[in-house]
Specification:
286 residues, Rossmann fold, alpha/beta, 7-stranded mixed β-sheet, elongated
Length: 286
């Protein structure tokens, strides 16, 4: 099929009956499926795609028309410098989490060595970015979901082969899999949405992304409290704790960290929109 004909077909399918064609969505889908820049489908509408490629793009279009987020339909998501394979076993990586990695890289500075621990790794985005860009001796990625760990392990291929030996995957809940270690950094994008808020979520999140990675008891605070309360046991002196949090629970997260006398320099950092989005703290001298 010519890209021009596929373009027209997808644009109407993604828009739905009686709605102007969704040409931008169709362009982005074709580009993502072919791993090309966004402008490429528009500039190459005269090219003919083979049948398997056409059918794969059409299937992705059908899934998107049924509400599936594009990243799941395509099976890939960009995260910083990484191209990650994802599916409904893991959350779709988001720009805020890219900022969390940037924050950790900045706060750990130019020093080398030590262990970085990513709690609730999901697709492996945080752990693999820290392994690829950081100066850690080891990066340990944990998750309570065996399915998520399988996705993360497959994404090891997204970082240079010489970095593979630095990354370890462990199954278990919150800090349990890393008990007894001393880490230079503990990082997490934990579940932080209250189950009572399920109805407030966009359908693309609520109906497609894994609830285990979205929702947390205690009004969304159970996972955050679990990590914060155990972090000081696992951090080396001046070790960094950095969590992505919900802006509605920023005060509760800060208060939780401030009640632990072993932590210092507790603060909330904002994202690019000014929302309170990250909790950071340091371990006092042991």
């Amino acid at each position: 099929m010519l890209i021009a004909d596929l373009f027209t077909q997808l644009a109407q399918q993604l828009a739905g009956p009686g709605v102007p064609p969704a040409r931008a969505d169709a362009r982005d889908l074709i580009a993502a499926m072919l791993d090309r820049p966004k402008f490429w489908p528009t500039a190459n509408q005269h090219l003919d795609l083979d049948q398997p490629t056409t059918q794969a793009i059409q299937l992705a279009g059908t899934n998107m028309a049924n509400g599936m987020p594009m990243q799941y339909a395509v099976g890939r998501a960009a995260f910083r410098h990484l191209d990650l394979r994802i599916d409904q076993r893991v959350l779709i990586p988001r720009p805020e989490t890219e900022m969390l990695v940037e924050l950790v890289l900045g706060l750990t500075g130019t020093g080398t060595g030590g262990i970085a621990i990513d709690i609730g790794t999901g697709s492996g985005a945080i752990a693999l970015a820290l392994a690829a860009e950081g100066r850690f001796e080891r990066v340990i990625a944990t998750d309570v979901s065996p399915d998520a760990l399988a996705v993360a392990q497959a994404n090891l291929a997204a970082i240079p082969a010489e970095k593979h030996a630095f990354v370890e995957f462990r199954l278990g809940n919150l800090l349990e899999p890393v008990s007894g270690l001393l880490a230079r950094a503990i990082v997490s994008n934990p579940p932080y949405i209250s189950p009572s808020e399920r109805g407030d979520l966009p359908a693309g999140v609520r109906d497609w992304e894994p609830h285990l990675a979205l929702f947390s008891e205690e009004d969304g605070m159970a996972a955050i409290r679990g990590i914060v309360r155990g972090a000081a046991d696992l951090l080396e002196p001046a070790g960094l704790l950095a969590l992505e949090i919900d802006s509605r629970r920023a005060t509760l997260a800060r208060e939780c960290a401030e009640t632990d006398s072993r932590l210092r320099d507790v603060e909330i950092r904002t994202d690019l929109t000014g929302r309170e989005r990250f909790l950071v703290a340091r371990r006092k001298e042991r």
